[in-house]
Design goal:
This protein is mainly alpha-helical. The protein has nine helices and two strands. The protein has a two-stranded antiparallel ribbon. A hairpin with a 4-residue loop joins strand 1 and strand 2. Helix 5 packs across helix 8.
Length: about 270
C-alpha cells in the first residue's frame, strides 16, 4: 500500500468517525428532549408515497442533468476570457474551507454574542457544527466516488475511488452551501440571502474554471445545505437555543443599539458594547 493511499484511507476513516460521533451525540439527545409521550397502543406509521415520489423525481432530474455535463462544459469553454478567469479565481476562494471556516465560525460567534448574548452564541456554535458536518459528509462521499475532474480530459464518466482530489460532489460548493444552510437555520428573514448568493457564485466559478462538472456542483449544493440545516437544527435543540422570530429585533438593529460613536483628541471611531 502506497503512502498516498494509506493517507487517503486514514483521512476517510477519520472523517467518517467524526461525522458518526457528532450524529451519535446530537441526534439521540435532541430527539429525547422532543419525544412525545409513549402511546398506550402501538401505532404503525404508513409509508408516505409522496416522499418516495420526491426521491424518484430527484433521481430523474439528476439523470437529466448528467446528460448536460459535457454540453455545459463546452458552453463555458466558449465564454472564457482573462477577466472572467481572474474574477472566478478570486470568487472561488470563498469556498476554501481552510480559509473561510475559521472566519465564519469566529465571525458568527462574535456577531451572535454581540447581538443576542448567550442565545446568539449558542446559535452560532450550532451553525458551526452544521457547517462542519455538511462539509465533512460531502468530502467523505467525494473520496469514495473518486470521479475524475473535467480538466483531466478523460470524460465525464471516469472514476478512480479513493485517489484523492476528486470531482464529485464539489467540495467548494458543498462548503459554501453548508454555510448558507446553517445561517438560514440559525437566523430569520433576509440574513441568509447573501450567503446563498455567494454560494451560487462559487458553484458557477467551479464550472467556469473547469474544476467540476455541472452535476458535481448541483449535488454538492444539495448535500451541503440539507446536512447543515438538519445538524444545525439538532444542535440548537441540544443547546436549548431559541430560533429568532420575525417579531424579535433584527441582528442589525441589535448591533446598532450596542454601538456608540467616540470622538476625542486621541481617538475617533465607534465603540461596541459587549
Amino acid at each position: 500500500m502506497t503512502t498516498l493511499t494509506y493517507f487517503l484511507r486514514s483521512s476517510l476513516r477519520t472523517g467518517i468517525t467524526i461525522i458518526l460521533g457528532l450524529l451519535f451525540i446530537l441526534v439521540p439527545t435532541a430527539r429525547a428532549q422532543d419525544a412525545p409521550p409513549v402511546p398506550t397502543s402501538i401505532q404503525v406509521e404508513e409509508p408516505n408515497p409522496l416522499k418516495w415520489s420526491y426521491l424518484a423525481g430527484g433521481f430523474v432530474v439528476l439523470g437529466g442533468l448528467a446528460l448536460l455535463d459535457e454540453p455545459v462544459r463546452n458552453f463555458t469553454s466558449d465564454l472564457q476570457s482573462d477577466f472572467g478567469r481572474d474574477f472566478a479565481r478570486t470568487a472561488t476562494d470563498y469556498g476554501k474551507a481552510t480559509l473561510m471556516a475559521p472566519i465564519f465560525l469566529g465571525g458568527s460567534i462574535l456577531v451572535g454574542t454581540i447581538t443576542d448574548g448567550g442565545q446568539g452564541f449558542k446559535r452560532a456554535a450550532a451553525a458551526g457544527i452544521g457547517m462542519a458536518v455538511g462539509s465533512l459528509v460531502n468530502e467523505t462521499l467525494n473520496q469514495i466516488v473518486g470521479r475524475r475532474r473535467p480538466s483531466e480530459e478523460v470524460g465525464a464518466w471516469e472514476f478512480d475511488p479513493l485517489h484523492g482530489h476528486a470531482s464529485f460532489p464539489s467540495g467548494h460548493t458543498a462548503f459554501t452551501f453548508a454555510i448558507a444552510g446553517a445561517v438560514d437555520e440559525a437566523t430569520e428573514g433576509w440574513v441568509a440571502i447573501p450567503f446563498y448568493t455567494a454560494a451560487t457564485i462559487t458553484g458557477l466559478t467551479r464550472i467556469y474554471l473547469d474544476r467540476h462538472w455541472l452535476t458535481d456542483v448541483v449535488v454538492g449544493s444539495l448535500i451541503g445545505v440539507w446536512m447543515s440545516r438538519r445538524v444545525t437544527r439538532t444542535a440548537m435543540r441540544l443547546f436549548n437555543a431559541d430560533r429568532p422570530t420575525s417579531s424579535s429585533r433584527s441582528g442589525v438593529q441589535a448591533l446598532l443599539d450596542r454601538m456608540e460613536p467616540v470622538a476625542s483628541p486621541h481617538f475617533l471611531g465607534v465603540r461596541v458594547r459587549l
